[in-house]
Amino acid sequence: MGAKTEVNLVLQKNACPIAVVFALLMLFFCLPEAGFAEQSKPNVILILADDMGLGDLSCLNGGRSRTPKLDKLKSQSVWFNQAYSAAPVCAPARAALLTGRYPHRTGAVTLNMEKYPELARIRKDETTMADVFRSSGYVTGLIGKWHSGIGREYHPLARGFDEYQGFTGYLHVTSYFDYRLDVQDRTQSFSNRYLTTDLSNRAVDFVRRHKKDPFFLHLAHYAPHRPIGAPKERIAPYLDKGFDRETATVYAMIEIMDEGIGDLLAELDRLGLRDDTIVIFSSDNGPDPLVSTRFNLQLRGNKYTVYEGGIHVPFMIRWPKRFPPGERDDVIHFTDVLPTLIDLCELKPPSDLKLDGGSLSAVLSGEHKGLPDKRFWQWNRKVPRYSHNAAMREGDWKLVRPFVTRRIPKNESKRPPVLYNLASDPAESRDVSRKNPERASRMAADLEAWSKEVEKDRCRP
Questions:
Q1: Sheet of 390-394, strands arranged across
Q2: Confidence band of 170 (pLDDT split at 50, 70, 90)
Q3: Which residues have CB under 8 Å from 419's CB, separation 6+?
Q4: Tens of pLDDT along 282-331?
Q5: Between these two residues, 23 and 106, which has the higher pLDDT value?
Q6: Contact call for residues 360 and 280 (beta carbons, < 8 A)
C-alpha cells in the first residue's frame, strides 16, 4: 500500500487530529511530488563527434574555428588532458566505448560492415552500455551513427536501445543534405534538411519527451566525417580567413554541430535538468588524412594510426551537482566510460560482466586512483595483425609498433617497435628505445602478451 493510499484511508475514517497530522506528514515526506523524495538517478547524455581532433576546438586552436558552446561546456566540465579513444577508427572505438572492453574482445575490429560484417559488429554475447542502463530502469536512445553491426540481431533496438533514429554507416549518407535515417526500424529519406542540425533537433525532442524519466541518450554525430559538406554561407567566413575549401568546410560543419549541442544544453537548462544530467563529450578518433590537413596541436599522425594524432581525443564530463570544473592529467581511455557511469548512476550490470577500463569516479573527485596502469591499442583493416599499428602506454612512456598502411596489410610487419617519452616529446619525434632498452623490451613483451590475450578472446566460440 502506497503512502497516498494510507493517507486517504486515515482521512476517510475521521481519525483523531493527531492521526490526521501524522497522515499529512506522511503525504509531505513520502510522496515524490512533495520534493523530499529520494533523488532519482542522474540522466546521461553521451555526445560523440566523428573524426574531430583536439585542434578543432577553438579554445585550443587560437580561434581558427568557432566552437563557443563546446568551449563553454569545457569551462564547466572536468577536462581530461590525456584522454584516448580505444582505436584510431570508428567501429572499434565505438565498440569499446559501448562495452567498456577492448575492441578486439567485442569482435569489432575493422570498418566495412557490408564486406566484412562479422568483423565490424559487437558480438551478441557482449553487454552494451544501453543494456546496462535499460536493465537499471532508464529509457535509452541512440540518435545518429551506429557503426556496430548490421542485421536484425545487431540492430540498436536489439542491443539495449529503446529508441533509435540514425544510420548504420556511410552508405546511408549520400551527403549531409541527402540522407536516410532508420527511425524505429523504418527507413525515411531526407533531402530538405541538414543532417547535423536534424540530429541535434531529434536529441532536443528526446529530452523533452523523457524529461520525467531517467534517460540515457547517446548522440552520435557524423560531423565532420566525409562526405564533407555545409551551407555555402557557413563556409564563406572561413574562406575569407584564408583557409582552403576543405578545411573551411570542416570548420563550418563543426560550428553547426557546436550550435546544436548548445541548443541541447540550453534545453536541459529550460527543463531544469542541468544539475541532474551528466554530459560527456568526445570524438571517436583524430582527423581524417583524406581531408586537407588542419591544425591539431602538432600531434603526430591522424585517423588510422595509433600515434597521438589518431587516438588522443577531446574528452569532458559535466555534472554540476557533483564535480566542480577543472583539469585532470590522468591517462583515461574509452573503456573507462562504462565503469564510470555504472558507479555514478548506481547501475546494476550483470554479475559476470568483465570490463577492461576503470571507473573515473575517484579521479573526477580529485583523487588519482582506480585506473589501469597500462593502456593498449591496435588496428588494421580486416583480421588483426598485431605486428602492425599497435601501441601501449605506461605512465609517460609509449611503445609503438609503427603504422604501415591503412589498406589491408599483406604480411606481418618487420619494423621494430619504437619508444617515446610523451612528457618530453609529445610530438613522438624521438625514438629513445636504445637509451632505455630494458623498458622497451618489457613494454614490447607486455604488448605481445596483451595481443595474444585479446586475440584469443576475439576468436572464442
A1: 374-378, 390-394, 397-401, 418-421
A2: confident
A3: 397, 398, 399, 400, 431, 432, 433, 436, 439, 440, 443
A4: 999 999 999 999 999 999 999 999 999 999 999 999 999 999 999 999 99
A5: 106
A6: no
Cα angle: 216, vertex 343, 45; to 5 degrees: 20
**Same domain membership, residue 414 and residue 365:** no
CATH number, domain at 363? 3.40.720.10
Give the pLDDT score at 171.
Answer: 74
Query: Nearest CA to 138 among 282, 284, 344, 283?
Result: 344
Domain with 147, as residue range(s), is 43-372
Q: Are residues 379 and 356 in the same domain?
A: no
Of the candidates 104, 95, 103, 83, the one whose C-alpha atom is nearest the C-alpha of residue 129 is: 95
Beta bridge partners of 44: 216, 278
146 and 193 together in one domain: yes
Task: Cite the DSSP H helix spans in 56-89.
Answer: 68-76
Q: What pLDDT shows up at residue 18?
A: 55
Per the structure block, which three cell numbers stand in for 9? 484511508
At 80, the amino acid letter reads: F
Q: Is 136 exposed, middle or buried (0-12, 13-18, 19+ CB in 10 A)?
A: middle
How far is Cα 78 from Cα 365, in angstroms, rounded to an integer? 10
Contacts for 454-457: CB closer than 8 Å, 24+ residues apart = 454/102, 454/104, 454/105, 454/376, 455/104, 455/384, 455/386, 457/104, 457/105
Distance CA(386)–CA(413), nearest Å, equals 9
Domain boundary among 326, 357, 372: 372
Residues 317 and 364 in one domain: yes
What is the CB-side half-sphere exposure of residue 293 using CA atoms within 13 A? 8
- Do 392 and 262 fall into the same domain? no
Number of domains observed in the structure of the chain: 3
